[in-house]
Amino acid sequence: MQEEKMSMQVEDAVDYKGFPADRSKTGGWVPAALILGIEICERLSTMGIAVNLVTYLGGVMHLPSSTSANIVTDFMGTCFLLCLLGGFLADSFLGRYKTIAIFAIVQTLGTSMLAITSKLPQLRPPPCNAHDMIDCKQADGFQMGMLYLALYLIALGTGGLKSSVSGFGTDQFNEKDENEKAQMAFFFNRFFFFISIGTLMAVTVLVYIQDEVGRSLGYGICSVSMFIAILIFFSGTKRYRYKRSSGSPIVQIFQVIAAAIRKRKLNLPYDIDMLYEDAPHASRIHRTEQFQFLDKAAIVGEGDFENRSLNCSSGPNPWKLCSVTRVEEVKMMGRLLPIWATTIMFWTTYAQMITFSVQQASTMNRSIGDFQIPAGSLTVFFVAAILITLAVYDRLIMPLWKKWKGKPGFSSRQRIAIGLVLSTLGMAIAALAEMKRLSTAKSVGRSSSNLPLSVFLLIPQFFLVGAGEAFIYTGQLDFFITQSPKGMKTMSTGLFLTTLSLGFFVSSFLVSVIKKVTSSDGGQGWLADNINYGRLDLFYGLLAILGFINLIIYLICAVWYKPEKTKPAIQMEARFNGNGEDKC
């Protein structure tokens, strides 16, 4: 009877009361779907605001185009950068459930505040002809302050949510149960698809409501959807499985670095087996030659085991001595950094799709019969490219590749390379399309707010960069999860998300530099307040060149990278007194 009861429990999970989780009463697809729902609403809110924010800043707040673009990219960059904060809090203090609950409420407050700021006349400047910028009064400090407060509450909420939602969703499945393991794979496969559906709803329905009905209503819908998602999330509290926190990987990395610095003057022992190791044989990682300075963290020094005399079960001070396996885990993370750095440029290119490309669309003919396509809704082609690419890759490319090469699709590094190639081509095509648009603006008058040029000219750049995202997003996620240590999967996911963050910040930096350099002679420069007077084509061309250079560097890094091969565990014991015997 006792054995039967034990078999119904999930080993490493507890229920909401802290008791061992009963597999028949907790976890599975229903709780995972409730968690997935809050991520769909988060994506609906964040993207529904981000893709159309640039037109609000220019048309309502009367800000210059470059300033508007930077506000959007800084907002999106902060969203993803705060994922590190959310992950740290979840791993170290709050746990994933509380982290999701707290930051979902924060995001709901932010969207509610944004709806209020867009509704009250006192919180925006008086209307004018924003296209000509004649007698237009820009938003003052108080108005912008209230807007910033709302946006960065949303960013804080988004960061906390994104860091924990996917992990908490997978917590609902037991990897040691074959049936539940298959369900978890299904959950991963559908996760990106459903958040893309959330994005699709955002760039179509929500953007249309914002442009044609009212901003406050559109933002209010975001707030209401998040509130409903929170209630649904709380309804599953008794059904969830909870994993106990094992400590923050960030702290573990700092411990290895601190121990290595402390012992930087010591020499590595001639016999490498003298290095400290306490991990179980089955989970040990073979020492590698790269980053040898970190190996000094595993040198046993005087005072490292001073607490063992008082309590034989206690280990060494982790800030003074780390095991070889712990050091190798940090090395594995270090080997990811060159790939990490060379994928940032893609997200800099991506940033243009929700900023300057939307501004381009706002000046072009967007009519289909009597229907006027909102400028922000052009990103629907971007989302469509993602969904089409994923379907073609899954149903066509993978089977053909398996027949030809015997492998189930491209490797993660190959998919990243394809994404970088497509984004570079996308920027080159965007530069050509902008040359055509500027030529039309010059012929009919640069002050025209509705050029006789179809907005569908922009579709190729949206499709190329969108298809690139389908490859690079899945490639990065696969790479950072499979090539990172088992205990640092959450950390590596956060590392992946920082490439998105830094991509947006690099975009803001480039825009600021280009604006300053090209406007130094008193002209409007490449990024004029009214893009009809600028040279956005040259900016796109510069991004294409930078993308090509980045692609070459990435290929070098991808060849240099040597994935960790599976090896038998090292058969050695921790040598606490230099002769292989434990003093205890």
TrEMBL record:
List UniProt keywords, sorted A-Z.
Membrane, Transmembrane, Transmembrane helix
Principal location? membrane
Give one GO molecular function term: transmembrane transporter activity
Location of this chain's protein in the cell:
Membrane
Q: What lineage does UniProt assign to this protein's organism?
A: Eukaryota, Viridiplantae, Streptophyta, Embryophyta, Tracheophyta
Source organism per entry reads Buddleja alternifolia
- What family classification does the UniProt entry report for this protein? Belongs to the major facilitator superfamily. Phosphate:H(+) symporter (TC 2.A.1.9) family. Belongs to the major facilitator superfamily. Proton-dependent oligopeptide transporter (POT/PTR) (TC 2.A.17) family.
Name of the protein in its database record = Uncharacterized protein
> Where is the chain membrane-spanning?
44-63, 75-94, 101-121, 141-161, 191-210, 216-234, 336-359, 371-393, 414-433, 453-473, 494-514, 538-561
